[in-house]
């Protein structure tokens, strides 16, 4: 009986001890679960903060790129303004204006001694002298066709780089401006596809081009019987009274 009582007492104490241990384990597990919840919550907050920071960083990068582009645009505009300012200062200066006018007048005076001939075929010859001799012979015939009494010396120059596939215009240079004017007056006598023109400066070519554009614009707007005529050596848009009289 004593042994049995001892065994029962031992078993009771052992059961109580196990119960206490189980309670402690349950409590510890519960505490660990709470800690895990806190860790999970903190982790979720960190992840959210990281995503927000990433978005902010991307936004900062985008804004920085826009700022850099704006700075580049402003710098370009500043450079453009400086260049235009310098150009305007030069173009507005009476000194530069007078020099441009004098240079243009000198260039026109020199070009009045020349004519440009278009439509003369170019021989397929590598030798420059042979080509120049051929051009001189053809130009001589053209001059004689336009003015039989003219035998003044001249010089021929093909304009542009030699290309066997193309016929370059010829600049014919005389020692005075009278002969070119006579030849241009008689240019209607030319036959075939050969044409002659006055040797114009870049400013003259730009002026006549703008004048032709203006003529076409006015015709498109309904104006009739208008044409371009040289008045005191200046091309001008006029009303063609002869056409009006016929109408």
Description:
This is Endonuclease-reverse transcriptase. It comes from Euphydryas editha. The chain has helices spanning 2-92, 94-111, 128-146, 178-185, 202-220, 241-246; strands at 114-118, 155-158, 170-173, 195-198, 226-231, 234-239. It has 247 residues and is an alpha+beta fold. A 4-stranded antiparallel β-sheet has the order 2-3-1-4. It has a two-stranded antiparallel ribbon with strand order 5-6. Strand 5 (226-231) and strand 6 (234-239) form a beta hairpin. The mean pLDDT is 84.
> Which blocks of ≥5 consecutive residues have pLDDT under 50?
none
Number of helices: 6
Radius of gyration: 49 Å
> Biggest sheet: strands, sense, closure?
4 strands, antiparallel
Number of E-type strands: 6
Strand order of the largest sheet: 2-3-1-4
List the secondary-structure elements in sequence, H or E: HHEHEEHEHEEH
**Strand-residue fraction?**
5-15%
Structural class designation: alpha+beta
Helix content: 55-70%
Please tell me the overall pLDDT: 84
Distance between the termini: 155 Å
Tell me, what's the shape?
Answer: rod-shaped
Keywords:
four-stranded antiparallel beta sheet; alpha+beta; single chain
SSE blueprint and pairings:
Blueprint: H1 2-92, H2 94-111, E1 114-118, H3 128-146, E2 155-158, E3 170-173, H4 178-185, E4 195-198, H5 202-220, E5 226-231, E6 234-239, H6 241-246
Antiparallel strand pairs: 1-3, 1-4, 2-3, 5-6
């Amino acid at each position: 009986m004593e042994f049995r009582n001892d065994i029962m007492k031992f078993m009771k104490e052992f059961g109580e001890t196990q119960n206490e241990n189980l309670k402690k384990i349950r409590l510890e597990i519960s505490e660990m679960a709470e800690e895990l919840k806190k860790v999970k919550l903190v982790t979720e907050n960190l992840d959210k903060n990281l995503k927000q920071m990433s978005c902010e960083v991307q936004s900062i990068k985008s804004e920085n790129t826009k700022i850099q582009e704006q700075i580049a645009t402003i710098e370009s505009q500043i450079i453009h303004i400086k260049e235009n300012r310098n150009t305007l200062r030069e173009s507005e200066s009476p000194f530069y204006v007078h020099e441009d006018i004098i240079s243009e007048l000198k260039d026109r005076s020199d070009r009045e001694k020349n004519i440009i001939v278009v439509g003369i075929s170019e021989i397929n010859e590598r030798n420059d002298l042979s080509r120049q001799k051929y051009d001189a012979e053809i130009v001589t015939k053209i001059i004689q066709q336009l003015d039989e009494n003219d035998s003044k010396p001249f010089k021929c120059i093909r304009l542009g780089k030699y290309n066997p596939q193309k016929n370059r215009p010829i600049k014919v240079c005389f020692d005075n401006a009278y002969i070119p004017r006579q030849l241009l007056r008689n240019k209607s006598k030319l036959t075939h596809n050969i044409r002659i023109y006055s040797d114009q400066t870049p400013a003259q070519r730009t002026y006549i081009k703008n004048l032709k554009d203006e003529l076409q614009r006015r015709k498109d707007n309904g104006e009739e019987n208008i044409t371009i005529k040289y008045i005191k050596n200046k091309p001008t848009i006029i009303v063609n009274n002869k056409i009006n009289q016929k109408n």
